[in-house]
Design brief:
- About 100% of the residues lie in helices and about 0% in strands.
- It contains one helix and no strands.
- The N and C termini lie far apart (about 145 Å).
- This is 5995_t:CDS:1.
- It comes from Racocetra fulgida.
């Protein structure tokens, strides 16, 4: 009787162990799938971040180029204004000189 009971206990124990192992493996597979999905989402987000970063760098470079061009235009206008003022001053002095003669 003891041997029969022991065999039955071993059989029940093996069934429980197999059931638990199957459930654990199933849950592990689900966790692995979820982890893979999360990693994929993170990779996608990182790729989007890199794309956005590249676009922003391009915009930044374009903006700096525009700022530099405006600075060149500003300097040119200042130079032209200075030349106009000098010519006006010279003409005014020439007129005064010819008026005094």
């Amino acid at each position: 009787i003891n041997t029969t009971i022991a065999k039955e206990i071993i059989k029940i124990r093996a069934e429980i162990n197999n059931d638990l192992t199957a459930k654990i493996n199933s849950r592990d597979a689900n966790y692995a799938t979820e982890a893979q999905n999360i990693i994929t989402m993170i990779n996608d987000a990182y790729e989007k971040y890199n794309e956005i970063k590249q676009v922003l760098e391009t915009y930044h470079n374009n903006f700096n180029q525009i700022v530099n061009e405006f600075e060149i235009i500003r300097r040119t206008i200042t130079t032209l204004q200075d030349e106009i003022n000098q010519r006006y001053l010279i003409q005014s002095m020439n007129r005064r000189g010819s008026d005094q003669q």
